[in-house]
C-alpha cells in the first residue's frame, strides 16, 4: 500500500465537536487512480486535506510509503509536500504574474535543481499535458481548461508519489473536463502515477480504477 | 538559503513587473512623497538654523570674537593683536570695533517737540577691514554705507530708523530717512549730531537695531586710539574655530577672552536647538507615517494574495521564502521611492528654493540638504519598509493553508 489510513478522525468546533471524519480507515495501492465521491458535506474534501497534509487530523494515522505523516513538524510537512505530493485545486490556483512555464518550474526551483534542467523538465511536462504552445502565456491569456492543465503540470513536475486533485473539473465546461480527466487517466496509465481525486460528478467514475464512497464522515461501500 | 533568496527574488520581481501598473505607480508615488516629506522637513529646519548661523557669522560675530580680559574695557595695542591674528593662515578678515550703548534721538520737526529717542548699540568700523569681515555693507537698502573719511555720518539699522518695514516701529525713531539728522549721546556724556548716510536691513533683528560710525569718529568721541572693544575674525573654514583659537593662543594672545560665534549666540543658540529638535520630532513622525503607509500597502497586497500564499505553501514553499518575497517587494518600493524622491529633491525642489528662497524673519531660508540628513531619511524609510513589509507578510504566511486558500 502506498497509503494506509487508520481510524482517522477529524472534528471541528469547541466543547460540542462536529465530526467531519468518524474513524476512516482504508488503503490505496501504488499506481491506483482513485476517486473519493459522495454528497456535498460528506467529508470527502476533508479527507483529501488530511491525506495531503493540508490540515491536521484530530486523531488516527496516515502512512504514506510507510511513514506516518501525522507526526510531522512544520518543516517536515513543507519538505514532504514539495518532494512527495502534488496538488490540483478546484480553481486553477495559478499565480497571475507567472507564465505557464514559470508556474511549472517553480516547484523544481524549490527542489534546488539547476536552472537549465528545471526549464527543460518544465517544458517536457507542459508538452506532455498538451501545452507546448503556451509556455510564455500568463493565466489570463489561457482558457480555464488550459489553466487547469498548467496546474496539473505543476503538480506533476516534481514526480510526486501521489497526485491529489480536489474537484479539478468543478469550474470547467464539459469539453475541458473531459480533456483533464483523460489526461489524468493517461498519466495514471503511462506513468503509473497514483492519483486521488475528489469529485461529485457520477460520470467521472468511468475514468478511475476505484471509487471510495463517503457518507456522513465514514467510508461507504467501495 | 541562496536558492530561497533566488526564489523570493523571482516571485517579487515577477509580481512587480507583471502586477497592476497603476497600483505599482501609486505605491511608488506614496514612497516618493514620504521620502520628500522626510528630507524636506529636515532640510527646511536645517535651512533656518543655517540662516541664523550665517547671519550671526556674517553680520555680528564673524567666526571668532576677541574681547578684553575680565575687568578691562578695551583691548590695548590692538594693532599688535591684529598683526598676530592676520599671520595665522586661514584668517580671511578681521575688524576691530568700539562698542557702546548710546542714546539716539530724532527731532523730526527740529522744534524740540515730539523728539523720539532710544538706547541702541553703536559700533565703530574701519571700513577697509569691515568689508572683508562682515556683510552689513551689502545690506544697505537706502542711501550708502560709510566711507573711510566720514566723520559726521551714521548708518542705522531699519529697526532704529523705523522705516522700510521695521518690525519694531513703536520702539524706533519712527521715520528717520537718509539725509535726516540724529543726535547721539554717548556713555561718556558727549553729544554729537550725525547725518544719516544709509539705512540697512539684514533680516536679523539683533543687527538691525545697531548703528555704525567710522573708527576715527568713535576714537575722537571716546578720546582713545589703538584700542578696541572687540576684534571679530573671519576664517576660511567655519567649524574649525577652536583650532584657530588654539593657534591665536599659541601666537601669544593669552589673556584675551576669545570665543567662537557659537559660544556667543545665546538666545539664538536656543532657537537653533529648538528648530533642530522640531526637525527631529517631525522626522520621527514622518518615518512612522511612511512605515504605516508601507504597512497598509503591503497588508492590502497580502490580503489580495492570501489565496496565492496558501497555494505556494501547499506546493511546498517555505513560509520564510514567501515572507522574504514580500519584504523584497517592500524594499523595491522604498528604494524606487527614495531614488526618485532624491532626484526630485536634488534637481527640482532644491534648485527651486535656491532661486526662490523663503522669506523668514531670520533671513532668506533655502533648503539645507546634508549628507547626514539624506542618510538618516534613507535608512529610516528602508527600515520602515522592512518592518512594514515584514509584519503583514509574516502574518499572512503564518495562516493555515486551508484558511489561506478558502478563507
Can you describe this structure?
The complex is a heterodimer of chains A (222) and B (407). Chain A is of the alpha/beta class and 222 residues long. Chain A has helices at residues 44-51, 74-84, 100-110, 115-128, 144-156, 174-191; strands at residues 3-12, 18-28, 33-38, 59-64, 67-68, 85-88, 162-166, 194-198, 210-215, 218-219. Chain A has a single domain (31-49, 72-210), classed as Rossmann fold (3-Layer(aba) Sandwich), CATH 3.40.50.300. Chain A has six helices and ten strands. In chain A, strand 7 (162-166), helix 6 (174-191) and strand 8 form a beta-alpha-beta unit. Chain B is an alpha+beta fold and 407 residues long. Chain B folds into two domains: 2-56 and 269-406, no CATH class; 99-226, no CATH class. Chain B has helices at 2-18, 21-61, 78-86, 127-133, 158-161, 215-222, 241-250, 261-264, 267-304, 306-314, 319-355, 371-398, 401-406, and strands at residues 64-67, 91-97, 99-106, 116-125, 140-143, 153-157, 181-185, 191-200, 210-214, 230-235, 257-260, 358-360, 363-365. In chain B, helix 1 (2-18) crosses helix 11 and helix 2 crosses helix 11. The mean pLDDT of chain B is 88. At the A-B interface, helix 2 and helix 3 of A face helix 1, helix 10 and helix 13 of B.
The largest beta-sheet of chain A arranges its strands as: 6-7-8-3-9-10
CATH superfamily of chain A: P-loop containing nucleotide triphosphate hydrolases
The averaged pLDDT of chain B comes out at: 88
Mean model confidence by pLDDT of chain A: 88
Output the CATH class name of chain A.
Answer: Alpha Beta
Give the distance, in angstroms, between the N- and C-terminal Cα atoms of chain B: 30 Å
Subunit organisation of the chains: heterodimer
Distance between the termini of chain A: 17 Å
Amino acid at each position: 500500500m502506498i497509503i494506509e489510513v487508520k481510524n482517522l478522525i477529524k472534528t471541528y468546533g469547541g466543547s460540542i465537536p462536529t465530526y467531519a471524519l468518524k474513524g476512516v480507515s482504508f488503503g490505496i495501492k501504488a499506481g491506483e487512480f482513485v476517486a473519493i465521491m459522495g454528497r456535498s458535506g460528506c467529508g470527502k474534501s476533508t479527507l483529501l486535506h488530511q491525506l495531503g497534509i493540508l490540515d491536521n487530523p484530530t486523531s488516527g494515522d496516515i502512512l504514506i510509503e510507510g511513514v506516518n505523516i501525522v507526526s510531522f513538524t512544520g518543516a517536515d510537512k513543507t519538505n514532504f509536500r514539495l518532494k512527495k505530493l502534488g496538488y490540483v485545486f478546484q480553481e486553477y490556483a495559478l499565480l497571475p504574474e507567472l507564465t505557464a512555464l514559470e508556474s511549472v518550474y517553480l516547484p523544481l526551483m524549490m527542489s534546488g535543481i539547476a536552472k537549465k534542467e528545471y526549464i527543460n523538465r518544465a517544458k517536457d511536462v507542459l508538452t506532455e499535458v498538451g501545452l507546448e504552445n503556451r509556455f510564455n502565456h500568463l493565466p489570463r491569456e489561457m482558457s480555464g481548461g488550459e489553466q487547469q492543465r498548467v496546474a496539473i503540470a505543476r503538480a506533476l513536475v516534481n514526480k510526486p508519489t501521489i497526485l491529489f486533485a480536489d474537484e479539478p473539473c468543478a469550474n470547467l465546461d464539459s469539453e475541458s473536463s473531459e480533456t483533464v480527466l483523460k489526461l489524468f487517466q493517461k498519466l495514471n496509465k503511462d506513468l503509473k502515477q497514483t492519483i486521488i481525486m475528489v469529485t461529485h460528478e457520477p460520470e467521472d467514475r468511468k475514468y478511475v480504477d476505484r471509487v471510495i464512497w463517503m457518507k456522513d464522515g465514514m467510508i461507504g461501500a467501495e | 538559503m541562496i536558492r530561497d533568496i533566488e526564489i523570493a527574488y523571482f516571485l517579487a520581481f515577477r509580481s512587480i513587473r507583471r502586477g497592476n501598473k497603476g497600483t505599482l505607480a501609486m505605491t511608488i508615488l506614496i514612497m516618493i512623497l514620504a521620502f520628500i516629506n522626510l528630507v524636506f522637513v529636515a532640510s527646511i529646519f536645517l535651512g533656518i538654523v543655517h540662516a541664523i548661523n550665517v547671519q550671526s557669522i556674517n553680520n555680528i560675530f564673524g567666526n571668532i570674537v576677541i574681547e578684553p580680559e575680565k575687568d578691562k574695557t578695551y583691548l590695548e595695542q590692538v594693532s599688535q593683536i591684529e598683526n598676530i591674528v592676520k599671520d595665522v593662515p586661514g584668517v580671511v578678515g578681521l575688524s576691530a570695533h568700539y562698542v557702546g550703548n548710546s542714546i539716539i534721538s530724532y527731532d523730526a520737526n527740529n522744534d524740540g517737540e515730539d523728539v523720539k529717542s532710544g538706547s541702541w548699540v553703536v559700533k565703530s568700523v574701519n571700513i577697509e577691514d569691515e568689508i572683508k569681515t562682515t556683510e552689513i555693507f551689502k545690506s544697505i537698502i537706502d542711501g550708502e554705507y560709510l566711507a573711510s573719511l566720514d566723520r559726521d555720518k551714521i548708518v542705522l539699522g531699519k529697526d532704529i530708523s523705523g522705516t522700510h518695514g521695521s518690525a519694531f516701529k513703536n520702539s524706533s525713531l519712527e521715520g528717520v530717512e537718509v539725509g535726516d539728522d540724529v543726535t547721539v549721546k554717548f556713555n561718556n556724556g558727549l553729544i554729537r549730531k550725525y547725518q544719516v548716510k544709509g539705512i540697512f536691513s539684514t533680516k536679523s533683528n539683533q543687527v538691525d537695531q545697531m548703528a555704525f560710525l567710522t573708527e576715527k569718529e568713535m576714537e575722537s568721541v571716546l578720546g582713545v586710539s589703538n584700542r578696541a572693544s572687540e576684534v571679530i575674525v573671519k576664517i576660511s573654514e567655519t567649524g574649525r574655530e577652536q583650532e584657530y583659537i588654539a593657534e591665536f593662543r599659541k601666537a601669544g594672545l593669552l589673556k584675551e577672552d576669545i570665543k567662537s560665534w557659537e559660544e556667543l549666540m545665546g538666545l539664538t543658540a536656543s532657537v537653533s536647538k529648538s528648530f533642530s529638535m522640531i526637525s527631529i520630532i517631525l522626522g520621527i513622525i514622518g518615518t512612522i507615517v511612511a512605515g504605516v503607509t508601507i504597512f497598509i500597502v503591503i497588508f492590502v497586497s497580502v490580503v489580495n494574495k492570501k489565496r496565492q500564499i496558501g497555494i505556494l505553501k501547499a506546493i511546498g514553499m517555505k513560509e520564510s521564502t514567501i515572507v522574504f518575497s514580500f519584504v523584497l517587494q517592500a524594499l523595491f518600493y522604498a528604494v524606487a521611492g527614495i531614488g526618485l524622491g532624491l532626484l526630485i529633491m536634488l534637481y527640482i525642489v532644491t534648485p527651486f528654493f535656491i532661486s526662490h528662497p523663503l522669506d523668514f524673519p531670520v533671513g532668506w531660508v533655502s533648503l539645507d540638504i546634508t549628507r547626514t540628513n539624506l542618510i538618516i531619511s534613507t535608512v529610516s524609510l528602508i527600515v520602515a519598509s522592512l518592518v512594514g513589509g515584514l509584519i503583514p507578510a509574516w502574518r499572512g504566511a503564518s495562516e493555515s493553508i486551508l484558511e489561506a486558500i478558502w478563507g
